[in-house]
Amino acid sequence: MDMSETPTETMMKRFQSFQPPILKGTVTSDDCENWLEDIEILFDFLKCTDERRVKLIGQQLHEVAKSWWLVIKEALEQRVSYRQDKGAEFTNLKQGQLNIDEYLAKFSTLLRFASHVARNDEAIVDQFLNGMNPEILTLVNVERSNNLADALI
Fold first, then answer.
1. Sequence-ordered list of residues with C-beta below 8 angstroms from that of 64, at least 6 positions apart, any chain
2. How many other CB atoms are found less than 10 A from the CB of residue 41?
3. How far apart are the first and last CA of the chain?
4. What gap in Å lies between CA 133 and CA 3, rounded to an integer?
5. pTM, whole model, 2 decimals?
6. What angle separates helix 100-111 from helix 63-91, to the nearest 10 degrees?
7. Where are the alpha helices (DSSP H) in the chain?
8. In angstroms, rounded to a whole number, what is the distance separating the alpha carbons of residues 151 and 144?
């Protein structure tokens, strides 16, 4: 192993050593599915992370498939950025001038972008209560709030 190589370069050389198939995108859907199955088997064997799979797969696409991939990759990258922005918006959400129904609606909409909080009811309630205005928070019966619905009763 060349010590000047990055882990991605090392993985690329290892991946290419297996002579993975190339997809041009001009074959039947069955051929595409077979190609995908072959690539997935190789990725699993190499224990590739999703991030590495994305980097490696682009090398195996040519012609129509390459054009398609470039469009999809850009859309995916924008989606990841969008999800990160919405996750940050959720983390920083405060009730402010919103009434409780508006705050709950905004909170619920953004919750799907916050998988780190949505893992359990207690974390969801804590995040919701932390964003509430202090004068409204005193009206909430925190002691019996096991989930968001209980906190709002």
1. 24, 25, 26
2. 12
3. 62
4. 55
5. 0.51
6. 140
7. 7-17, 29-46, 50-57, 63-91, 100-111, 121-131, 134-137, 148-152
8. 7
Residue 133 pLDDT greater than 80, yes or no:
yes
In this model, does residue 144 exceed pLDDT 60?
no
- More confident of the two residues 61 and 120: 61
What span, in angstroms and rounded, lies between the C-alpha atoms of 55 and 44? 15
How far, in whole angstroms, is CA 151 from its chain's centroid?
29
CA distance 137 to 106: 17
d(CA 98, CA 28): 54
* pLDDT for the residue numbered 61: 92
Both tokens assigned to 62 = 């040519």
**Cα angle, residue 103 at apex, residues 97 and 107 outer, rounded to 5°:** 140
| Among 119, 115, 145, CA closest to 130 | 145
Type of residue at 20: P
What's the CA gap between 118 and 149, in Å, rounded? 14
Q: In 3-state terms, what secondary structure has residue 61?
A: strand
Distance CA 50, CA 28 (A): 26
